[in-house]
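Hey team,

Filing this mostly as a record. A colleague (T.K.) asked me to run one chain through the structure pipeline before their review meeting, and I want the input and output archived in the tracker in case anyone asks later how it was produced. No errors, nothing strange. Just documentation.

Input sequence:
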Amino acid sequence: PAAAAPPAAAAAAAGVGGWMLYRYWRYGVSVLEPVYTRDGVVAKKEDRAVLFGKVEGQNRGPDPMDPPRKTVDPYYWMRDDKRTARAVITHLNRENAYFEAQTRGLSKLKKEIYGEFVSHVKETDENVPHPHGPFFYYTRTVKGLSYKIHCRKRSVGGHPAGGEQVIMDVNQLAKGKKHCDVQMVEPSPEHTVMAYTVDYTGYETYDVFFKDMTTGKLLSESLKETAGEIVWGADRKTIFYTTLDPEHRPNKVWRHTMGTPQAQDELLLTEDDELFWLDLDKTCSGRFLVVRTSSPTRSECHVMDLE
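Output structure:
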């Protein structure tokens, strides 16, 4: 994994040596080399043979070319599935520096365009509360805040009533994070525990956390590296989730029993066909779990009785 970047302020405080180190770490160039030229940033070329057609151990589709054809890709080194290669990161930093320099004179225009967009948006807003058990759940936004606030109110006579309970303020969750994407917020069937999935990296791999809805305290239990989709079982003892294959395709469904290690979770279904993706749902009655596997042209559903 890539090491953490030395902050620019700390590098400057360390003197010329610190600044030189920071410059090299961020841009991959010495003080004698330009970060970019007048014509931009030119990516280096490193010839790499790439095969098209049949490759042992890889799914190349039906009837791939055999023998495979070989071509040379001088920019193959830019492929970085884990987003940690220093050569790729420093190149992108140089591209960004060039872009910022070229568009520096447009800062006023950018603010005007942004202001125009925002003027047509109702920043402080609330969606329609939806009934779910003894509560009405809804989200709202506040002007000046970037993320949603998840709330609920008691259901009285089929209408939301009483004081508002904030069950999650994503703005608080995002503090100190470079990226924060909350995909799902799901109360348990008893409405006592809330499960939510969040991605702090931007890689669309989500961790699952659990929160006591009465005290607001985060539970110690969590699930790592999921696809971001969760469905509670018949009660708060069980939760279902999906995970990803190396190509970032949701391909496995798991059952987790609360209070047990994730390593002991039960694998319920694996979708081996790379054209199909898995997703989860639950019937309105709450009795059945629905696992749907679908491709652009076909789909099928598997149903599990949760009782």
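Quick notes for T.K.: The radius of gyration is 25 Å. The mean pLDDT is 92.
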